[in-house]
Design a protein that fits this description.
Layout: E1 9-15, H1 19-30, E2 37-43, H2 50-60, E3 64-68, H3 75-85, E4 90-93, E5 99-100, H4 104-115, E6 119-127, E7 133-138, E8 143-144, H5 146-150, E9 161-163, H6 164-167, H7 179-188, E10 195-206, H8 216-230, H9 235-254
Parallel strand pairs: 1-2, 1-4, 2-3, 6-10
Antiparallel strand pairs: 4-9, 5-10, 6-7, 6-9, 8-10
Length: 255
């Protein structure tokens, strides 16, 4: 582990009925080569064994913290509760069915320290429900600004680390789906910050059964609402960015 920076990283993980994948996701944090982290597990009223598993992790490692939402509210509210609890200078996001490579935090934080980057994301590879490789490295762009992000699906939530000492405190919009994309847009909107891509696979992104077909229409509808209701794009710019967003979404899964 490098000695350049021993700042605390708060790892944000919302959990809802993820007992099948939770152990592997948590293990990918426990085995990080950068040890100064806290893992905040927020259970969103799971009905499976997830709450019992979370409590076991909390008792086993003092770096693991836990919270149970009083009622199911979706990933945005769970992540926001974790952000309220977070003590770290850095916040990193990991969904409960995705996996980090062991050097994910170390390599990403080193890049951030060397370049004074406030917002970073990484390349990913896609795995299926069984953990088998479905698609190899998805290349990322060096820098992403607001305009570019409007037309792209390039930032995977579970790859993101944000330096709150530069960006400041933030929360995700209280919507059921698409809150990560909406958050990155809100952070980049005024041009003060850029998202910096690290072109190395440090995340395995899991494609759940049915995600490509049944959920894509709903995801595109959410994206359109973000353009019109959050970003207040007029009709023609919204159509332009939406057409490119659809193209990149298709490319992500099929091309």
């Amino acid at each position: 582990m490098p000695t350049f920076d021993n700042e605390l990283v708060s790892v944000i993980m919302p959990v809802y009925n993820k007992e099948r994948y939770l152990e592997d996701a948590v293990h990918s944090v426990l085995t990080q080569t950068y040890p100064n982290w806290e893992l905040i597990l927020v259970d969103d009223c799971s009905t499976d064994r997830s709450p019992l598993m979370i409590e076991a992790y909390r008792q086993k490692d003092e770096r693991v913290r836990a919270y149970c939402m009083p009622q199911n509210g979706g990933a945005a509210l769970a992540r926001n509760r974790a952000l309220e609890m977070a003590k770290g200078r850095y916040v990193a996001f990991l969904d409960a069915d995705d996996l980090w490579k062991p050097q994910k935090l170390e390599k990403q934080l080193l890049k951030m320290h060397q370049n004074n980057w406030e917002f970073t994301f990484t390349a990913i590879e896609m795995i299926d429900a069984e953990g088998e490789l479905r698609r190899s490295k998805r290349q990322v762009k060096d820098t992403v600004n607001y305009r570019f992000l409007l037309s792209n699906t390039i930032i995977a939530c579970s790859s993101v680390i944000i330096d709150r000492s530069i960006v400041g405190d933030f929360r995700m919009p209280s919507v059921r789906k698409g809150q990560d994309f909406a958050t990155w847009l809100s952070l980049l909107r005024d041009g003060r910050f850029l998202a910096h891509g690290i072109d190395e696979v440090l995340l395995q992104y899991r494609i759940a059964p049915g995600a490509i077909s049944s959920n894509k229409a709903a995801a595109l509808a959410r994206t359109w609402r973000i353009y019109r209701e959050q970003e207040h794009l007029s009709l023609l710019p919204a159509c332009w960015h939406f057409s490119w967003y659809v193209f990149h979404a298709v490319k992500k899964y099929w091309m």
